[in-house]
Amino acid sequence: MPGPTTTELLWGIEQKPKRGPKPSLTLEQIVAEAMALADAEGLGNLSMQRLAERLGCAKMALYRYVPGKAELTAVMLDAALGRPPERGAATPDASEPWRAYLTRYSETAFERFGVHHWGLELAVGIRPLGPNEMSWLEAGLDALDGNGLTASEQMDSVVLLFGHVRGLAQTLGPAHGLDMEEDLVKELGAVLIEHGHRYPHVAQALAEQAARPDGDTGRNQALRFGIDRILDGIGVLIDSRK
Description:
By secondary structure, the chain is an all-alpha fold. Helices cover 65% and strands 0% of the residues. The chain is built from twelve helices and no strands. It has helices at residues 6-11, 27-41, 48-55, 59-62, 69-81, 97-115, 119-122, 131-144, 151-172, 178-195, 200-210, 218-240. The chain is flat, with a radius of gyration of 22 Å.
């Protein structure tokens, strides 16, 4: 009997029970261990053999739960994304509640990709969507509903926001690389002391970033700047429909 498909694994569609001993693992245990391995060593070092060693079982035993790595990583991505933030979790904004929510929505997605950076490698191309990823899409569309945009425009708006989040997360790397980011800025500062006359605009931009209040990292500033500009544009479109 063939193993479950990616869609069946993602959506918990149960197959007929197989003969044999009672399973000693669960799909949730396998996915959690696979995510821990990918977080620590990167997706490239994830293999069914390595995973079996960490779980203390035979490699072939894993195939009772997942047909292969492709199906496993699809479930990992959905677990890494988790559920989108609740609408009530956004900062209240009586005039533009959609904007307040989509700001928090985008920031949360950025945080998730920062923790599980390997998810960026998986969230590409035409592929089955799991319940969590589908919930992100639904939540973004729901926030824009009733503002005069067509369903297609709402979809394009959500895709645009996620494009900014993904692009910046890909460029800046994992969230645990903040110390490296700060060290690199210091090194660049030292270089620009000597060569700043050749790159005056870069020198000025880095100097302004260094002068920002504590806690306002370049990572956060770039994220929020892009979110605000995208939402500004969506807001103009919404106003044009009134």
